[in-house]
Specification:
The chain is an all-alpha fold. The chain has one domain: lambda repressor-like DNA-binding domains (434 Repressor (Amino-terminal Domain)), CATH 1.10.260.40. 68% of the residues lie in helices and 0% in strands. It has seven helices and no strands. The longest helix is centred in the C-terminal third of the chain and has 35 residues. The radius of gyration is 20 Å and the shape is globular.
Amino acid sequence: METATKHNHIGRKIGRIRELRGMKQETLAIELGISQQAVSNIEQSETIDDEKLKEIASALGVSPEAIKNFSEEAVFNIMNNTFQDNSSAVNYHCNFNPLDKLVESYEENKKLYERLLEAEKDKVSYLEKLMKK
């Protein structure tokens, strides 16, 4: 009898996290500065070098370890435990959606990035004024 072994297919995990985040391949490609086809190739790759994984994790708003340890079963278990069992008046389960927490983290990082980008634009503008004088 053959036993099925689970492969740690990083590309599939990246694709699934991207989908759970509601992000298209094109959006991830823009974040990474690569083509949509390159993202597709990454998602088909079983392994990815650590530097690229860090970039991808940052674009997805998760840690590289979260990608490496991602388990769809765990996500669904957490989601199932998020909702109250109607047969009980007391909810002993988790009362937040972990995917919402991921999205919040992503939104906070996005706001920080936008503020940093604006600060850099201000610096460039200031230096341009100095050069004109």
